[in-house]
């Protein structure tokens, strides 16, 4: 799926996880310096009949949606016309011609257009980060106001694609914020912005889906509202409002058609997520995120059966970082996190998103399942370290002697030699059998096992070398084989679980 961020201009498009978990709602955050905005948490009246016009809603919201004009100054080195290297031309100019690459530069101006939303009467504006990410100058124009304002950037957060601007003005018409958790699929929404550089434009649609994530090439913390309300280039940073005119999201991206325009699939950052970023940027100038210090994974059908879970909800703890908050509190590999601060956790992404929205130093109540027993821990969160994206893994297939494990058909394992341990940066405390090869048609490959993984347990029995892996593989019984592995994932390397189907033969 190809995504396009929805701003328009003369410049080229601005360049658009597993993480060691970066919990809670924004009301956990200190707000003494927050803008004075108005929030209505009640859901819309879904029993009401739609009227014949949305004009009253548009008139209410339109003064809060602004045009954003950005300018970027790009320095580029001048190059001499290659024709001037021709001896025929040089005989007329001699040495007066500058040497090629003499260091002369010129400044080129790139301009782009986007949208924003006034969220406080004293001039705080929410927009999309990619609208202003590389801007040297930012101007804001308010509908119906002949004056153009110079905006300063309060802060930007690439991970959520949210930015906060401030203009020096008072008594502005600020939008009312809704509680985006009250949204339901099928609710009517309006998108307001400035597509294609046109003046303010309104489109209507419904909420097509909620909680969209995993979209390729996009920001890390994804929890998008999907809508079929037409969103086009230039709409980025604009308002997505409900049928009562309350802000539910900040428009940010589309799945474009072949001409780059709307084809009925647009995305907006939920206002609850954007509001939390706004409060942190205004109060502290940066976004800090809560940190547990675990490497979680989703629960598939095989893992649910292995861990005696009633369904596939929850996030399985694959690894716990030594010395991190989770480790200090007693969370263990193999625990399944079910809820945080009373909020159910559906999968690893939901856990990551929930943790990221909590303040470092705040207390998080973790409900989890261990060996079939539900337990609770209260963990004081740390602060998510910088550089929290998972790096691409390198392919370093070891050249060592190998032995084939019969039960894990198609898997070739080897002892972990010292030079390979150093190459893969395997901690000294980790022991196991190195996966040298995995047949792409094998059940293990289907479960996610791959070369350079280190098998550390099979059916909860420790593996210290290739002989252990072969012995335990042969002894493994049951429909599923539970394999615990250590995997290099850049700075986020750690253990995780795989459930390998043992009911069918390898292809």
Offer a concise description of the structure:
This protein folds into three domains: 4-44 and 54-69 and 114-283, Thrombin, subunit H; 290-383, Pdz3 Domain (Roll); 403-501, Roll (Pdz3 Domain), CATH 2.30.42. Helices cover 15% and strands 35% of the residues.
Task: Describe the protein.
This protein is α+β, with helices and mostly antiparallel strands and 507 residues long. Helices cover 15% and strands 35% of the residues. Strands 2, 4, 5, 6, 7, 8, 9 and 10 form an 8-stranded antiparallel sheet that branches. Strands 26, 27, 28, 29, 30, 31 and 32 form a 7-stranded antiparallel sheet that branches. Strands 12-13-14-17-16-15 form a 6-stranded antiparallel beta barrel.
CATH architecture type of the largest domain: Beta Barrel
Unreliable residue stretches: 7-32, 387-404
Largest sheet: 8 strands, antiparallel
Number of helices: 10
| Amount of helix | 10-25%
Structural class based on helices, strands and sheet pairing: alpha+beta
What distance lies between the first and last C-alpha atoms, to the nearest angstrom? Answer: 30 Å
Topology:
Elements: E1 4-5, E2 8-9, E3 39-40, H1 55-61, E4 65-77, H2 87-93, E5 105-118, E6 124-127, H3 129-132, E7 137-142, E8 148-150, E9 152-157, E10 162-166, E11 177-178, E12 188-193, E13 201-212, E14 224-227, E15 239-242, E16 247-256, E17 262-270, H4 271-284, E18 290-291, E19 294-298, H5 301-306, E20 315-320, H6 325-329, E21 336-340, E22 343-344, H7 348-356, E23 363-370, E24 373-380, E25 382-383, E26 403-404, E27 411-415, H8 418-424, E28 433-438, H9 443-447, E29 454-458, E30 461-462, H10 466-475, E31 480-487, E32 494-501
């Amino acid at each position: 799926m190809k995504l396009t961020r929805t701003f328009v201009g003369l410049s080229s498009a601005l360049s658009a996880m597993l993480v060691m978990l970066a919990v809670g709602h924004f009301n956990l955050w200190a707000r003494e310096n927050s803008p004075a905005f108005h929030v209505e948490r009640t859901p819309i009246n879904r029993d009401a009949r739609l009227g014949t016009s949305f004009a009253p809603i548009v008139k209410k919201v339109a003064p809060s949606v602004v045009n954003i004009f950005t300018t970027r100054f790009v320095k580029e080195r001048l190059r001499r016309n290659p024709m001037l290297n021709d001896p025929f031309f040089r005989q007329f100019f001699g040495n007066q011609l500058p040497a090629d690459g003499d260091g002369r530069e010129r400044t080129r101006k790139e301009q782009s257009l986007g949208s924003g939303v006034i969220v406080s009467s004293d001039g705080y504006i929410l927009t999309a980060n990619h609208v202003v990410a590389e801007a040297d100058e930012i101007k804001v124009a308010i509908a119906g106001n002949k004056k153009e304002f110079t905006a300063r950037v309060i802060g930007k957060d690439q991970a959520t694609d949210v930015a906060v601007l401030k203009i020096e003005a008072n008594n502005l018409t600020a939008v009312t914020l809704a509680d985006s958790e009250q949204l339901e699929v099928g609710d009517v929404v309006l998108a307001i912005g400035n597509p294609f550089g046109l003046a303010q434009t309104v489109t209507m649609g419904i909420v097509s889906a909620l909680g969209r994530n995993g979209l390729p090439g996009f920001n890390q913390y994804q929890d998008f509202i999907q809508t079929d309300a037409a969103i086009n280039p230039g709409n980025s940073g604009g308002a997505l409002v409900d049928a009562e005119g309350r802000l539910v999201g900040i428009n940010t991206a589309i799945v474009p058609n072949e001409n780059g325009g709307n084809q009925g699939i647009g995305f907006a950052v939920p206002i609850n997520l954007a509001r939390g970023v706004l409060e942190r940027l205004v109060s502290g100038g940066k976004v800090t995120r809560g940190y547990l210090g675990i490497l979680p994974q989703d629960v598939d059908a095989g893992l649910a059966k292995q861990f005696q879970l009633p369904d596939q909800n929850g996030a399985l703890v694959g690894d716990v970082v030594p010395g991190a908050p989770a480790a200090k509190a007693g969370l263990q590999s193999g625990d399944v996190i079910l809820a945080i601060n009373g909020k159910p956790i559906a999968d690893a992404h939901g856990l990551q998103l929930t943790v990221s929205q909590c303040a470092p130093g705040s207390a998080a109540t973790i409900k989890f399942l261990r060996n079939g027993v539900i337990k609770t821990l209260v963990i004081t969160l740390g602060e998510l370290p910088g550089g929290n994206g998972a790096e691409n893994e390198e392919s370093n297939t070891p050249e060592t002697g190998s032995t084939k494990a019969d039960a894990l058909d198609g898997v070739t394992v080897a002892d972990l030699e010292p030079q390979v341990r150093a190459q893969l940066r395997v901690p000294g405390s980790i022991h196991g059998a190195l996966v040298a090869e995995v047949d792409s048609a094998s059940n293990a490959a289907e479960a996610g096992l791959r070369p350079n993984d280190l098998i550390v347990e099979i059916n909860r029995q420790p593996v210290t070398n290739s002989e252990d892996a072969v012995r335990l593989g042969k002894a493994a019984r049951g429909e599923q084989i539970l394999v615990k592995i250590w995997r290099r994932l850049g700075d986020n390397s750690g253990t995780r679980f795989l459930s390998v189907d043992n009911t069918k033969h390898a292809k």
